[in-house]
């Protein structure tokens, strides 16, 4: 029974996220907004309900299966990928480097603020 409750919580948060995104025309995917709603709910609650924990662990056990459709899609559309291979590679490298640089700067600032607050 607790797994059903966990799935209801997850799907309910996703549904609320879809409603918020569509209702306010926010340019964010509904599931992402649903995860934000779930995070806020968990922070307010102060703990993870047992059913949600079991459901999350069960989904994580099979996470690799979710990559199968993407892999099949790459194999099916290999000719399209080959045609733009270098553009894709440059884009991946530049975007990865930019993400790493921004993440490093953010972590540097967060760490610096953490040190200042602890010193006081």
Overview of this protein structure:
This protein has helices at residues 2-24, 30-45, 50-61, 68-76, 78-83, 85-119. It starts with a helix and ends with a helix. α1 packs across α2 (30-45) and α1 (2-24) packs across α3 (50-61). It is an all-alpha fold. The radius of gyration is 20 Å and the shape is extended.
What is the compact description of this entry?
The protein has about 120 residues and is mostly helical. The protein has helices at about 1-25, 30-45, 50-60, 70-75, 80-85, 85-120. Helices cover about 85% and strands about 0% of the residues.
What's the layout of helices and strands?
Elements: H1 2-24, H2 30-45, H3 50-61, H4 68-76, H5 78-83, H6 85-119
Helix pairs in contact: 1-2, 1-3
What descriptors fit this protein?
about 120 residues; mainly alpha; about 0% strand
What structural class results from the helix and strand content? mainly alpha
| SSE pattern | HHHHHH
Proportion of residues in extended strands: under 5%
> How many strands appear in the DSSP assignment?
0
Radius of gyration, Cα only, in angstroms? Answer: 20 Å
Residue share in helices? over 70%
Average pLDDT, all residues: 90
User: What is the helix tally?
Assistant: 6
């Amino acid at each position: 029974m607790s797994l059903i409750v966990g799935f209801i919580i997850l799907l309910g948060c996703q549904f609320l996220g879809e409603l918020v995104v569509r209702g306010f025309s926010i340019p964010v995917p509904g599931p992402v907004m649903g995860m934000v709603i779930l995070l806020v709910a968990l922070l307010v609650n102060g703990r993870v309900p047992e059913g949600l924990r079991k459901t999350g662990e069960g989904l994580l056990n099979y996470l690799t299966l979710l990559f199968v459709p993407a892999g099949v899609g790459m194999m099916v559309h290999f000719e399209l990928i080959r045609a733009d291979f270098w553009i894709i590679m440059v884009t991946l490298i530049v975007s990865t480097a930019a993400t790493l640089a921004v993440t490093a700067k953010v972590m540097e600032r967060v760490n610096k603020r953490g040190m200042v607050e602890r010193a006081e």
